[in-house]
Amino acid sequence: MKISQLKLAEWFLRIALSAGFLSASADRFGLWPENRSVWGNWKNFIAYTQSLMPFIPEKLIPFFAISATVLEIGLGVFLLTTFKTNLVAKTSCALLLLFALAMTISVSLKAALDYSVFTSAAAAFALSIIVKKKVS
Predict the structure, then answer these.
(1) pLDDT band for position 132 (50/70/90)?
(2) Computed over its alpha carbons, how large is the radius of gyration of the chain?
(3) Which residues does 58 contact at the CB level (< 8 Å), separation at least 6?
(4) How confident is the model at residue 4 (pLDDT cuts 50, 70, 90)?
(5) Contact 62, 43 (CB under 8 A)
């Protein structure tokens, strides 16, 4: 594979993953129009988080919602830089696999597949391989 193709694939993965993280985070804060929104506000996102983790005590749900949001915003921003991309990509993969696991357990495997969470996790993993290959 030519270097330019590898670089194109790397940046396509970076931008796609970043856009997914940042778009979902923006939705939680009501930054998308209501007719385009999944949650539309923080309260609805907290309820969704609770639905994915019914085994977690309710008082801990805000911690998990905040943690996920901070991670998604941070990862979304770092994916658009070249700062520790291998670590950022692997962390993105792990977070997405946790989302997929929570969705599979609490909703269904079909939900995780329909939302392409496994695909996104695979994309993050592929990014970590591409970047590591370029370094070595």
Answers:
(1) confident
(2) 16
(3) 50
(4) confident
(5) no
